TrEMBL record:
Protein name (database record): Response regulator
Signal sequence extent: none
Domain Response regulatory: residue ranges: 9-119
Gene3D superfamilies: 3.40.50.2300
Amino acid sequence: MPSRLNGLRLLVVEDEALIALTLEDMLDGFGCVVAGVAGTLKRAVALADELAIDGAVLDVNLGGERVYPAAERLKARGVPFVFCTGYGRAGLDQAFAHVPTLDKPYQEEALRGLLLSGLFGQAP
């Protein structure tokens, strides 16, 4: 089935290797291209500045550090992003309260819907 996600180049920011691999598999199944993976805030900021991407999936908590500096870089570049978090929306900084967010652990179709709505403003 054709999807608006097909061929999208995405940055994945996730500090837990198993979750990152699972996320990469899901994105690949949607037809996305994972252009880069970051497990630390420093790497996330660098990739947010460097990569030519269409969007990003950001884990909010990276080993005790918040992903917000990378999110700010993406926002400044006009790159849409979504959050995935194990802490729920209540834990988000107010400056990012509007960002589409999915609670972990997440299901494949919920992630697909979040990407469609978060990256395109389109109903899944």
